Amino acid sequence: MRALIGWFVAYFARWLPHRAPTGLFAVGRPGAGSPVLVTANFTLTVKRVLRALAGQDVWLLVANSEGINVWCAACGGILTENRIIDAVKISKLAEKVSHNEIIIPQLSAPGVDREAVKQQTGFRCRFGPVYARDIPAYLEARKKKTDRMRRFDFGPRHRLDMFLPMNFPVYLLIAAVLALVAPKQLAGFTVLFWAAVGILYLLLDVIPGKTGWGQAMFAALTVVLAWAGINWYLWANPFAHWGWWIATFLVFFAAGFDIAGILSPRTSDAERMMQRLGFKRFGSLFVETERGTVELDPVKCCGCLTCKDVCPVGVFSGIDANKKAVIGHPEACFSCGACVKQCPEGALAFAAHELGPGS
Ligand code: SF4
Ligand code: SF4
Fold first, then answer.
1. Which residues pair with 318 in a beta bridge?
2. Is there a single domain that holds both residue 223 and residue 344?
3. How far is the CA of 233 from the centre of ligand 2 (A)?
4. What is the extent of the structural domain holding 336?
5. Measuring CA to CA, which residue among 343, 210, 213, 358 is closest to residue 291?
6. Are 259 and 320 part of one and the same domain?
């Protein structure tokens, strides 16, 4: 029963910290030459990594990210080089393995200074794939990543994964209030809520609008107009259920609150609102980050392509004839900071600009 409750909390409340034990774990029967994979101590992440590693003989080093997933913890300044250094030293990793390489998650790139890890532990950090499910293929390919392994996937698989955990707690909260104050409206609200969320999750890429809230309002307006048309056709009165119009706008408003940040590489409206209200951070859920377009200084660039290796949205397309990095898709950049942090030559920087409605 406790395990079931633990799974329920880890799955449905994934935006809350949920700590797994830290330390060095043997997966299968690893030896001194086996690879060492590092991850964060977010319960769901550790479970997924362990599932992906079934059948492998590797070491798994779980670093303390305070129970937060890799990307949020790295962007939020929690999963830094210090946490990796601590994990390596406390676990006495150097006594267990005969090599000096650790494979850290690609999504930790915004937070981890690899040079510092090397200086303080002697271990060289190599960035693994974005998803744990790609680790076996990555190891099989002698630690070579394909472009697909570097990309964060905002597609159907990600949306399916986010659909219930991100929305069920909100639904539960509103439904509980409704059950107390207006129980007769509960069934209608349930249909409306999941239809609204379903529309946004399925059609976000084609709904017009630059912000998640803008898109949600456009979808709400479309639904309300369709509803008015049906009412006019069936009852000759387009305003027959006007109360539900308001409910439709409110539900879409709530569903669109953070949708851009969850389902696309855009700043969420929630974050933008926090920034405008003057908040620098809100726990690990929101941290004000430097905004702007990433710019390359070709004089400094050595063509190592570390930037391409860590960018989760494929902004860098390769190197040119002069062996300088090429920013092939600047429009895809969402200022995560990974390339700027990892560029060994300091050739990348943000050209800061004012936050606009579409930024
Ligand atoms: S990481 Fe820096 S030095 Fe290396 S290719 Fe990219 S911009 Fe150039
Ligand atoms: S190019 Fe933009 S999105 Fe890609 S790693 Fe750099 S900052 Fe992040």
1. 326
2. no
3. 51
4. 283-352
5. 358
6. no
Q: What is the separation, in whole angstroms, between the first and last Cα of the chain?
A: 45
- Position 282 scores a pLDDT of 55
Amino acid at 242: W
Q: What are the pocket residues of ligand 1 if the criterion is a CB atom closer than 6 Å to any ligand atom?
A: 296, 301-307, 325, 343-345, 347-348
The closest residue, in CA terms, to atom 8 on ligand 1 is: 301
* pLDDT value of position 239: 85
- pLDDT score, position 195: 93
Same domain, 127 and 25: yes
Tell whether 125 and 198 lie within a shared domain: no
Please name which ligand lies nearest the alpha carbon of 330: 2
d(CA 208, CA 231): 25
| Per-residue confidence (pLDDT) for residue 291, from 0 to 100 | 60
How many whole angstroms from 302 Cα to the centroid of ligand 1?
A: 6
Q: Which CATH number does the domain housing residue 337 bear? A: 3.30.70.20
pLDDT at residue number 286 = 53
351 φ/ψ angles, rounded to the nearest 5 degrees: -90, 95
In whole angstroms, give the CA distance from residue 284 to residue 204.
25
If you take atom 2 of ligand 2, which residue's CA is the nearest one? Answer: 333
- Tell me how far apart the alpha carbons of residues 182 and 195 are, in angstroms, rounded to a whole number: 20
> pTM for the complete prediction?
0.83
Q: Which is the closest atom of ligand 1 to the Cα of 319? A: 5
Flag residues of the chain having pLDDT under 50: 290, 354-359
H-helix or E-strand spanning residue 294: strand 292-296
Tokens for 138, please give them: 């990555």
Q: What pLDDT, on the 0 to 100 scale, is given for residue 206?
A: 93
Which of 150, 171, 198 is the C-terminal boundary of a domain?
150
Measured in Å, residue 309 CA sits from the centre of ligand 1 at 10
Same domain, 311 and 333: yes
Residues 257 and 344 in one domain: no
